[in-house]
Amino acid sequence: MGSYVPSTHQEREEMLHALGLTELRDLYRDVPQAMYLDGKLNIPDGMSELEVSRAVSAMAAKNRVFSTVLRGAGSYDHYIPSIVKFIPNKEEFLTAYTPYQAEMSQGVLQSIFEYQTMICQLTGMDVSNASVYDGATAAAEAAAMCRDRKHHVTLVSAAAHPDTINTIRTYCYGTGDEMRIVPMKDGKTDMDALREMLTAGDVASFYVQQPNFYGQFESAEALGQLVHDADAMYIMGCNPISLAIVKTPRDCGADIAVGEGQPLGMPIGFGGPYLGYMATTGKYMRKLPGRIVGETTDNDGNRAYVLSLQAREQHIRREKASSNICSNEALCALTASVYMAAMGPDGMAEAARQSMAKAHYLADGLCAIPGVTLRYTGDFFHEFVTDLPRTDEVLKALEEADILGGLPIENGGILWCATEKADKAALDKTIAICREVLKK
Amino acid sequence: MKLIFEKSVPGRGMTLLPKCDVPEVKLPGELVRDAAPALPEISETDLSRHYTELCQHVHGVNCGFYPLGSCTMKYNPRIDEEMAALPGFTNIHPLAPAHTTTGCQEVLDTARAYLCEVTGMDGMTFQPAAGAHGEFTGVLLIKQYHDARDDKKRTKIIVPDSAHGTNPATAAMCGFEVVNIPSAPNGCVDLDALRAVLGEDTAGLMLTNPNTVGIFDENILEITRLVHEAGGLCYYDGANLNAVMGVVRPGDMGFDCIHMNLHKTFATPHGGGGPGAGAVGCKEFLKPYLPQSALMTGSDRLQVRSFAGNFLVVVKALTYIMTLGRQGIPEAAQNAVLNANYLMAKIKGTFTPAFDRICMHEFVLDLSEFKKETGVSALDVAKSLIDYGMHPPTMYFPLIVHEALMLEPTETESRETLDWAAEVFRKLYALGHTDPEFMHNAPHNAQIGRPDEVKAARHPILRWQKV
């Protein structure tokens, strides 16, 4: 069996002896005898490193890695620069815990401060927290930030990611608050329905995703105007890559900007670990949940960083805290920082432009095939929905050609996604296969 | 240290992407961003050196002793990282067809089976991304259970006053009223205090066992029986599972649901504060309430985040469990407990344990007498440890012990390290009596002196801005 216990058997004996005990069982004298397992744990024997490496690698080998991924829907296959894979694996970053002791954690604290700055740059906001679990929980936490006794309703666009909608619903269920879904029209939030739903006096906030689940750009500024006219708060969930070129949530009037940070250098990884980013205006700074790092000075007047504004948090406020969140995705935030620094403003913009260009090239190519149409006709970023006959056959044929096609969605639609990683040859091949299948 | 923004030079950068090989598409004018985000423009050399400089000012488990109580800072095996970085895992889309992701399913199924065996549970979800998130998930199981039975009067969750702050915060997030009960003088649950608050309005109890002072509650069966008798459910906070894994199971103690911190007990690295994974296990009758991704499963159940959770962290934990296996899991727990008792015994005679008895994987020192004698606080001692290259223990927790320092050495420390740590504590005990002033000003050799936290809170600077 494998073991990471350094003490030899003799050392263990000696240590027990030093405690006046004879066997390890003596350490568990408070455990009722009847429940003491006494070696009867029913899992397989341990293994050497080589054996376990073989066994786990064999599991990985059962998965199918596609050479081209044209599926997004909340998990985006962008290029990850090599250095972004190396830096977060530095053992000091990897094996440290939350920087409670500022004097021996300046490196982690500074990296979070830099992350917060980058998120503020990307979103146009004043304050970012150090991260939350993922994009869905970031939206749910933001919605919770807005609710109070009089305003207990969260409105959510039906065009948001289904997991985000359901996570907001779950958090509302917890506190006994209410979520109402604003219907969709032509693949976007129905503005008239929103206007109507905002007239109820109990609405705390409205959440919209930009671009939305179907890839469509929402009329974010106009939505924000409606929300503010009704004295509610406006939460935008934005794709961080798109923000390199698309109008910031701040400029669209958002009070809180959140989103899924996975595209910023994290692998798709079967869904996690991902990263929720969360930023707001100065006005709501003290309502923001989660860790926040602030700059200060030490007793010699040197610049220093600390975990700050802790009076908001659960370890101080206990049941009165606005959230129970504590440490969450620090290394993912570090990954995102390294990604943004490696790409720089130009590289991020290029990734955004290329993703958009490739998605449009794919959409144009597919829609040139008889029988294939775009379900929604509005402007889109790097995702779009097609309607075509024989969805299953198309996706199966693509799979055989080592291409993961778009995600089948309701009513026979396919939600496609392209990033800068898809080259023209792969897109042409995809279009050709679809044409071939649909010819039959 | 300069910030990365202070190292930025316009025009610098890396060559990462090829030229676009399809026609460009113009973003509609009203959607265009006004000005590019001011992200760093930096060469790869400088980027690499920047983070190398930062990581030289971080103390990880690989740097030295890290007895941060309640955080289980054990060694993080590198093979776990290697396995989680396999392209056969990292390159798998969460929404890929099921027949192409059977390896991922095998990871989740195997981890679920082993962890259910370790905890004595019947079902498990890996959706929660962290311990607190697991607590939220677990207490939601309790809420759904009572709701499904239309038992609306159960509005209260009982939490001992020794509990971690996330417990009451979690209960509040789930809409429950928190009933704090005082601990008995031995740090365990006061049965009379528990009986006094149990009733028709009891939704459940949240408990850590061993508790936050490092003691296994010998009345555990009576505690869970009383709660069940009142119609409530018992939630096990797995924060301290490292002391008992493979030795005794929460399911056998009478708990109905539990969360585990895979990043603590099962050795996945803490990453400077995540990502972890907070697997939640439950008994058969709670399985229908486990969360599921709406998009992945099409179910109408609740869910606590997107997709299937921090999957790659589960790969690390599974690798660890497979390595240790049937014998290694209890061996780790037993040696964590042995190390804690050994260290406590070695420190005893100087600083005073809050509870002078056999402990589990961690113990709490009570420095209130020492402070009275010398004026040196737990904080001063903690800061002094930094000068020895030791990460300080958890300070001022749990709240029921004054001037508390909580030490958890874990099983992956050698006897020499424990001997050395005890020696450092003895030195500081002596120093407190001879030169308290020196300790008030510690640390002396760290990168920075004590930071001004009040200033940070009163005049918040939360991002870098160009002057």
List strands and helices in order, with pairings.
The complex is a heterodimer of chains A (440) and B (467).
Chain A: H1 9-18, H2 49-61, E1 68-69, H3 82-86, H4 91-95, H5 106-123, E2 127-128, H6 135-146, E3 153-157, H7 162-175, E4 178-182, E5 184-185, E6 188-189, H8 191-197, E7 203-210, H9 220-229, E8 233-238, E9 256-260, E10 276-280, E11 293-297, E12 303-307, H10 314-317, H11 330-367, E13 373-374, E14 383-387, H12 391-400, E15 403-404, E16 407-409, E17 413-417, H13 424-439
Parallel strand pairs in A: 1-15, 3-4, 3-7, 7-8, 8-9
Antiparallel strand pairs in A: 2-10, 5-6, 9-10, 11-12, 13-14, 14-17, 16-17
Helix pairs in contact in A: 5-11, 6-7, 11-13, 12-13
Chain B: H1 44-55, H2 78-84, H3 87-90, H4 102-119, E1 123-125, H5 131-148, E2 156-160, H6 166-173, E3 177-181, H7 191-197, E4 202-207, H8 220-229, E5 233-237, H9 250-253, E6 257-259, H10 262-265, E7 280-282, H11 294-297, H12 311-347, E8 352-353, E9 363-366, H13 368-374, H14 378-386, E10 394-395, E11 404-407, H15 415-434, H16 436-440, H17 453-458
Parallel strand pairs in B: 2-3, 2-4, 4-5, 5-6
Antiparallel strand pairs in B: 1-7, 6-7, 8-9, 9-11, 10-11
Main sheet characteristics of chain A: 7 strands, mixed
**Overall 3D form of chain A:** globular
How would you name the CATH homologous superfamily of the domain at 78-322 in chain B?
A: Type I PLP-dependent aspartate aminotransferase-like (Major domain)
Which CATH architecture of the domain at 78-322 in chain B would you pick? 3-Layer(aba) Sandwich
Estimated helix fraction of chain A: 25-40%
Number of helices of chain A: 13
Secondary-structure-based class of chain A equals alpha/beta
Q: Which descriptor suits the 3D outline of chain B?
A: globular
Largest interface: A-B, 199 and 199 residues
